[in-house]
Amino acid sequence: MSNDFLTNMFSLEGQVALVAGASSGIGAEFASALAKAGANVVLGARRTDRIQRLADDIAAETGRKTLAVALDVTSGDSVRAAFDAAEEAIGTVTIICNNAGIGRPKYALDDTEEDWDITMETNLKGMWRVGTEAARRMQAAGKGGSIINTASVLGLMVGPQQLTYATSKAGVIQMTKVMALEWQRFGIRVNALCPGYFKTEINDKFLDSDLGQRMLKATPAKRHGELAELVPSMLMFASPTSSFTTGVALPVDGAHTLRIA
Ligand code: NAI
């Protein structure tokens, strides 16, 4: 028996979502979930062959419109071109999963300036580029919307070999809050997800290593999260049902951030 109460609450029918960093891992999972919830979905990433295949699969499975666009969040021109393509093909984007990110785990004294620059360009300035471009276009179209930044538990706590990554993700959380504060009056909500460990291309080698396994055992949940366990929090932020929820940084981490260090 279908449950209209829940369906209506979380439906994204009529909305256009853009996922930055949609070619693998969390972004690919989010793109599929957004379409299943009723949105038309734009998948943006640099690996266009991968996102084209994903876009085709999602359209076939859900019957929603999908579009694969080349997107490099380190380039303002690329970000603007992706939004232009999305608007032309589907319409004003009202949901953003601002998700592109990289990690270069190294001890602090081994980090080079290049490590610092590329991490900040992608994780912090990249999310700023996508977030501000999205808000400008929503405002111009007289539409509100929801921006969901993928931060990390490492924006809330720290660990070794994470100087550049943790610093960038702490910046994402602060950026989320200022955007939420300023854009509330435009009806644009901005929230951050702070995932604990989820096995994806960014960390699969580490999580499979002895050290990674030991580290997971030391977490309260004693395991990594499954991608499907991150989706409901994203859909809550995405859907108009959370119209009074903005500026939040939500850990989805099996209590990882609560353990005694
Ligand atoms: P992933 O490596 O599978 O996905 C990262 C995505 O970002 C890929 O689609 C990649 O192509 C894209 N990307 C990287 N640089 C880009 C650029 N310059 N322009 C456009 N796209 C770019 O890894 P995962 O885990 O799915 O990561 C997604 C987000 O989640 C990242 O922001 C990551 O920092 C964050 N995160 C992941 C956690 C995990 O345990 N997997 C934990 C906490 C946060």
> Which CATH class?
Alpha Beta
Query: What gap, in angstroms, lies between the N and C termini?
Result: 46 Å
Oligomer: single chain
Which ligands appear in the coordinates?
A: 1,4-dihydronicotinamide adenine dinucleotide
Tell me the strand percentage band: 5-15%
The residue-averaged pLDDT reads 96
What is the strand arrangement across the widest sheet?
Answer: 3-2-1-4-5-6-7
Order of helices and strands: HEHEHEHEHEHEHHHE
Q: How large, in whole angstroms, is the Cα Rg?
A: 18 Å
Offer a quick outline of the entry.
With 261 residues, the chain is an alpha/beta fold.
Characterise this structure.
- There is one protein chain.
- With 261 residues, the chain is α/β, with parallel strands linked by helices.
- It has one domain (4-195, 230-251): NAD(P)-binding Rossmann-like Domain (Rossmann fold, 3-Layer(aba) Sandwich), CATH 3.40.50.
- The chain has nine helices and seven strands, in the order H-E-H-E-H-E-H-E-H-E-H-E-H-H-H-E.
- The chain has helices at 4-10, 25-36, 48-62, 76-89, 113-140, 163-183, 204-208, 210-217, 231-238, and strands at residues 16-20, 40-45, 66-70, 95-98, 145-150, 188-195, 249-252.
- It has a seven-stranded parallel beta sheet, sandwiched between helices.
- The chain starts with a helix and ends in a 9-residue tail after the last strand.
- The protein binds 1,4-dihydronicotinamide adenine dinucleotide.
- 1,4-dihydronicotinamide adenine dinucleotide binds at residues 21-27, 45-47, 71-74, 99-102, 122, 126, 150, 152, 195, 197-198, 200-203.
